[in-house]
Amino acid sequence: MGKDAAYAAFERDIPAHLREDVMMAMAEATGGWGKPENVYILDHDRIDAINCRAHGIVTVDGEEYTFQMEDGNHNGTVLLAWNEDKAFEHHQPTRWALQPQRHLIDRAITENNGPFLLLKWDAVLKNKPDVAAIPGKYSYDRYVQPGCKVEGHWKAEAAKHHFEIVTEETAQETRQLLEKASNK
Questions:
Q1: By three-state DSSP, how is residue 60 classified?
Q2: What does the domain layout of the chain look like in residue ranges?
């Protein structure tokens, strides 16, 4: 059941005059900014300091319904599932890494000098722990204080050392490209 189907099922089951109050009670319980008596949270997952997901039971006019909801500034309040047997999915945090800035990668590939850039990349991360720590600090700050200020700060810190912050998967793909770009 998709989001639209979840809302349709919710509207089918909940009388129109109660919908706003029921939705608000589920959102309060999901976000952790209230404890409505008619909502019981079965599972909760905090994505960051502002965004979260929950799986719960809401009681309306003596009937119990299960729900899954997301609440926060990313998507607002979203009903993900309504009264269905759907596994609750915990958020999988993105793992961040540093890689050389794009223009350095492009130049190394064009000049068939990828292994040398890999050598420099690894040497900086090994010999400068303050630089190597940037992805962890970035990840932590994104969790506790999501927003543009954190993004800008850590991207600027990485750029000071000729790096950019990317996902670990992207960094691994870049490594593979650089390994293949050789004069040999």
A1: strand
A2: 3-82, 96-180
Is 177 exposed, middle or buried, given 0-12, 13-18 or 19+ CB atoms closer than 10 A? middle
* C-alpha to C-alpha distance for 89 and 181, rounded to whole angstroms: 40
Are the C-beta atoms of residues 35 and 42 closer than 8 Å to each other? no
Provide the token pair at 110: 């064009």
3-state secondary structure of 136: helix
Q: What does the pLDDT look like over 147-184, one tens digit per residue?
A: 788 889 999 999 999 999 999 999 999 999 999 887 66
* pLDDT tens digits along 58-78: 999 999 999 999 998 878 899
Residue 6, burial from CB neighbour count under 10 angstroms (0-12, 13-18, 19+):
buried
Query: What pTM did the predictor assign?
Result: 0.70
Phi-psi region of 61 (alpha: psi -120 to 50; beta: other; left: phi over 0): left
Structure-token pair, residue 184: 């040999």
Let me know: does 46 contact 115? Beta carbons within 8 Å.
no
Segment 28-55, tens digit of pLDDT: 999 888 899 999 999 999 988 888 999 9
